Amino acid sequence: MAGISYFTDHGDLLKKFTIDEIAKKSREEGRKEGREEGREEGREEGREEGREEAREEGREEARLEFARKLLARNTPVADVAELTGLEQAAIENIA
Question: Whole-model pTM?
């Protein structure tokens, strides 16, 4: 099978590769690059999911803190539920 020769800057023959060897190497490099891209995409998606979870936890904690303050002012549980969007059972548990 025909091959391609690679030479150094000084004209010395490094190696003669067949087309099949070059194609195989190209596929291997492509798979490696694809895996790395996939890993990076997965990392970024994981970071974004983590940020979103943290934001949601922060919002929930803010609603609970607001409910505590309302309850400290003797606001009726039904009103606290309406103002915070929390379930009455959850509000009764923090009281």
Answer: 0.54
